[in-house]
Design goal:
Elements: H1 4-7, H2 19-29, H3 55-69, H4 74-89
């Protein structure tokens, strides 16, 4: 849950996946404090043909997010994608 006024000047990047992650990174960059809510607020259904099931697309979009939108250099972008992938595998 987030106040609409906080995100009114934040634009989502043009990505097929990872847009929500981009939002969180932008909020942190602007100095907002984030925390979690320990309640289920929605449900999510994964299907075999969804964008979320396409791991290659997620890797490509994660790289674009770091390299193009977060303006990290090539090596740091690749490293960030590897860390993100590692955390997704072992979360």
């Amino acid at each position: 849950m987030i106040n609409r006024n906080i995100i009114k000047d934040i634009n989502f990047p043009i990505l097929k996946t990872q847009e929500d992650f981009a939002l969180w990174l932008n909020l942190i960059k602007k100095g907002h404090k984030l925390s979690h809510i320990n309640n289920t607020l929605s449900s999510w259904r994964k299907t075999n043909d969804s964008l979320s099931s396409n791991n290659l697309q997620k890797i490509i979009d994660a790289f674009k997010l770091y390299y193009l939108y977060q303006k990290k250099n090539l090596i740091l972008s690749v490293y960030s994608v590897l860390v993100l992938g590692y955390n997704k595998l072992f979360k």
